[in-house]
Write a structure and sequence with these properties.
The protein is built from 15 helices and 10 strands. The protein is α/β, with parallel strands linked by helices. A 6-stranded mixed β-sheet has the order 6-7-8-3-9-10, sandwiched between helices. The longest helix is centred in the N-terminal third of the chain and has 28 residues, at about 5-30. The relative contact order is 0.10.
């Protein structure tokens, strides 16, 4: 008996058992039948479903089937196979490896782990699966969507009509490519917002709020048409980029600069180059007065209170007098009184004929400030979709909830502590639009 061959066979069996035990733990976390972890080929297919890579799993299963046939053929011929058969065997082996890497890439994304784990899977598959299967705190962002389960609602047959005085958004989709696989981040979002309106942008984590904002501002173009008035944001981006003011959650202002210099630097960047010094200075002074920052104009940014710093962040975008304002959690870190004062200022900006879109995690305390609410939700395929757009009162009636936080809970996935009703509301909203 060849001891080396026996030893190799024993190692192969041990590796298979250890991998099976690891996959068993992963399947329990993803709510896939754990016993499938011990079924050859099938276990990798269901592992692909855990990683939202079902198509790759099917391809892997088919390739593995052919690979096993060639292995059997090789065994029966005692390794005496034609060169062309050997080349096909090598190609299948390579394709099998590529699809396995793509499946593990999907798992890394679903478990929200560092990308470096992909290589740990490739080099130390047994260790990686044991860690992911049994370490507390390592959990998938959502449960596996098994074949036969309800799929995401189809796109609606609706497109927002352009408004002369307002914002028109028609996003067909925004997608990225990941290992030659197309991943949709957001799709089927159609709405129009008149001037003078303040709109709440509501959605849970991963629902597409940032993607929506980036598409609307032109920062990351989607397959879409975005129009502000009768001007096309994508076709006229260079001439329109200062017509849109975006205030991020975290400001990038230098603490050592004065308030005046910070705002004047913004004026130099965003106001027309042919505007003279005195006109630019006058505009800076007007904005300082309007945002209540004139008394602290010579103070350093680092000396400002939280509310003053937020107002300065908004003033930096307001300096160019944009028609559209988008703010990402402007009330983050502010107490109730200061936050309300800030939203009252935003309401006044909207009342001047601007469009103001706000993302906030505490909407109910200032909900009376808003005219409409846009609700984005993740569908069954983890794509951001429009689940509702209308007035605040219409939103309460549509979702059957008293507050915005209740609406958010209804569309969040069950593994996020929600009710998991996103698909139902997306479909309901599409039907209501098509009905008239």
């Amino acid at each position: 008996m060849d001891v080396s061959l026996l030893f190799s066979d024993v190692l192969t069996i041990i590796s298979y058992v250890v991998v099976s035990i690891g996959i068993y733990g992963v399947f329990k976390k993803c709510e896939v039948k754990p016993y499938l972890a011990f079924v050859p080929v099938a276990r990798k297919y269901y592992l692909s479903i855990c990683g939202d890579r079902e198509k790759e799993g099917r391809a892997y299963a088919v390739i593995s089937g052919f690979y096993m046939v060639f292995r059997i053929l090789e065994a029966f011929t005692e390794g005496q196979v034609e060169d062309v058969v050997y080349i096909i065997w090598l190609i299948l082996l390579l394709m099998r490896f590529v699809y396995m890497v793509r499946i593990y890439t999907g798992l890394v994304q679903v478990f929200e782990m560092e990308k470096g784990w992909i290589w740990i899977f490739v080099l130390l598959e047994e260790v990686a699966l044991l860690v992911w299967g049994y370490m507390p705190g390592v959990n998938p962002s959502h449960k596996a969507i098994l074949p036969g389960m309800k799929r995401a609602p189809k796109a609606g047959n609706y497109e927002a009509e352009g408004v002369t005085d307002g914002l028109t958004v028609n996003i067909k989709e925004r997608s990225i490519w990941d290992f030659i696989k197309k991943k949709r981040l957001i799709k089927d979002v159609h709405l129009s917002i008149p001037k003078g309106h303040m709109v709440l942008l509501l959605g849970g984590s991963g629902a597409g709020k940032t993607t929506f904002v980036n598409a609307v501002t032109g920062y990351e173009k989607a397959q879409a048409q975005i129009k502000l008035g009768d001007r096309d944001m994508y076709k006229e981006y260079e001439g329109m980029k200062y017509d849109v003011g975006f205030v991020p959650q975290q400001d990038l202002m230098r603490g050592s600069d004065t308030v005046y210099n910070t705002l004047y630097d913004a004026a130099l960047m965003k106001l027309p180059t042919n505007m003279g010094f005195f006109k630019k200075r006058k505009r800076v002074m007007e904005v300082l007065e309007e945002f209540g920052l004139y008394p602290v104009r010579m103070s350093h940014v680092s000396q400002l209170s939280g509310g003053q710093r937020k107002r300065l962040s908004i003033a930096l975008e307001y300096i160019s007098d944009p028609g559209l304002f988008i703010l990402d959690e402007p009330d983050s870190g502010l107490d109730g009184v200061v936050a309300r004062e800030l939203f009252e200022k935003l309401r006044k900006i909207a009342d001047q004929g601007k469009i103001v879109i706000v993302i906030t995690h505490t909407p109910d305390r200032v909900i009376n400030m808003f005219d409409e609410v846009v609700v984005l939700a993740k569908d069954s395929e983890r794509t951001g979709r429009l689940a509702f757009y209308g007035t605040v009162d219409e939103a309460r009636e549509f979702f059957g909830k008293d507050g915005m936080e209740g609406i958010l809970a209804s569309i969040n996935q069950k593994d996020e502590g929600g009710e998991g009703l996103a698909d139902e509301f997306i479909e309901k909203f599409n039907e209501s639009r098509e009905a008239g």
